[in-house]
Every structure is written in structure tokens, then in C-alpha cells.
Design brief:
Blueprint lengths: L1 E10 L19 E12 L12 E16 L9 E3 L7 E4 L3 E16 L5 E6 L2 E4 L7 E11 L17
Antiparallel strand pairs: 1-2, 2-7, 2-8, 3-6, 3-9, 4-8, 5-6
């Protein structure tokens, strides 16, 4: 399966719109990444006439958003980050810069086969860093969607028991 991306914008940098990759920016006026990103996953046959069998495939989406800014105490200025999946953002001070991030995963089933050879998934993540401040200012969103080849679920603290 092949994946193509579209949508999203990145203010303050020449590489907008972004399409599934990280795009940090530098400057003192504040930066933001936002907008709906759509991933289209399309099956490509291995040979002419190959038919995709009816099946359920699982799409794993990974989203990572970060906003960081150089600053000195007591003037700590935090950016905002939202992975669009409902995960809380976390902010911390590293000693010379503030970092706010949000990240998460989503696994969704999709029916494919016969004439249905593609599907779309989308998310609206965002990251923004306010300005102006002197020094490094960055905001980036990384979005990736792919078919999961193997599905394994582990529950923390679970005990595996032998038959007997």
C-alpha cells in the first residue's frame, strides 16, 4: 500500500504546506502548524490483473507535535501543542528553553477488497509558539499513517499463565 499526504499549513516558513513530515521554523515572531492533514492509502497490485481480496486492514496513525522557545526565568513562555487525538499536552523547562509537546497513536480498521482499493484517514493536529522573543522559536507537526502488518496488544501489568 502506498501513502500520500495533503493539507496542513506552516506559518513562518517557506516549506508550507507540510505533507506528513516535520517542519521546524526559526524566528522571533511566533510560528504555527495547523490544519487538517489527510492521508490516502492506496493498494498497488504486484502484477496486472491482481485483485485485492476482501479483508480488514488496520491503519496506524502516529502524530507528534512540539512547540519550543528559548527563554529565561522568570519569563517562561510556553507554546501549545495538540495531536488532534485527545491526548493532553505536556510542557517543561529544560534550563534554557520551554518545550510543549503532544503525541499519540490511533489504530482504525478499514474494509478493502474488490473495487475498494484505497481509503483516507485524517487528523487536525497543531503546534504554535508565540512571539516575539529573541532566540530560537520552533513549532512542528509530524504525521504518519501506514498499514500495520502485525497487531499485538500488551496490557501493562498482565500476567501470562501457562496451560495446565
Amino acid at each position: 500500500m502506498d501513502t500520500t499526504y495533503g493539507g496542513g499549513t506552516h506559518d513562518g516558513a517557506a516549506d508550507a504546506p507540510y505533507s506528513g513530515g516535520p517542519f521546524p521554523g526559526w524566528g522571533g515572531s511566533g510560528l504555527s502548524c495547523s490544519g487538517k492533514i489527510t492521508a490516502t492509502i492506496t493498494w498497488s497490485p504486484d502484477y496486472q490483473g491482481e485483485v485485492l481480496p476482501q479483508q480488514t486492514v488496520y491503519c496506524l496513525e502516529h502524530v507528534y507535535c512540539v512547540a519550543d522557545k528559548t527563554c529565561n526565568p522568570p519569563n517562561l513562555v510556553y507554546g501549545s501543542a495538540d495531536d488532534g487525538l485527545g491526548d493532553a499536552s505536556q510542557g517543561h523547562f529544560t534550563g534554557f528553553m520551554t518545550v510543549t509537546n503532544s503525541w499519540g497513536y490511533r489504530l482504525t480498521p478499514h474494509q478493502v477488497g474488490g473495487d475498494v482499493t484505497s481509503f483516507m484517514v485524517n487528523d487536525s493536529p497543531s503546534a504554535s509558539t508565540p512571539g516575539p522573543l529573541v532566540g530560537y522559536t520552533g513549532s512542528s507537526v509530524t504525521y504518519q499513517a501506514a498499514i500495520s502488518d502485525a497487531l499485538s496488544i500488551t496490557f501493562p501489568g498482565a500476567i501470562q499463565m501457562a496451560d495446565g
